[in-house]
Amino acid sequence: MKKKLLYYEILMFFIANGLMFVLHDVYKETNIHFLSYISPVNESIYEHMKMVFFALLLVYILFFFIVGKKYINYWFSRFVSLIIAPFLVMVMYYTYSGMLGYNILWVDIMTGVLSILIGQILAYYILTKTKINPFNNVIWACIIMIIAIVFSSLTYNPIHIDLFKDNQTGRYGI
Hints:
DUF6512, membrane, transmembrane helix, 5 helices, single chain, globular, transmembrane
């Protein structure tokens, strides 16, 4: 069972990364309003955190029906990944660009890939090594949906701090 689960986790990693690349430009290219809730609307760090979050969330929803129903702690393990991965995008970007004084496109891309990788590793570890779940899957799924709503709403009501600022245009949000 663990070998099959590991296969699914690796598959999720690749699908989430592919989806991340699609999400990056889908709103800008289509200008479909609904896509602004899950896709970046500008080049701010926050919008890239949102992109990683939703790439993972969409994959996790799909794989819940394939493999997740078998695990009582599936959504808890995904919750941890969905919190850690976007956070790592921010930490890695500000760390390396702060040290260099500028950003590099391929390093920016790798921050997204690495954050998804680390999130997947943590989710797999939690799923296979922990059996204690203080809440059930429904409650964790609801908490994740609340976080998704907050992520989306901050695109339209951004906080005026550098995290939300598009350094190319100087604008915040949409």
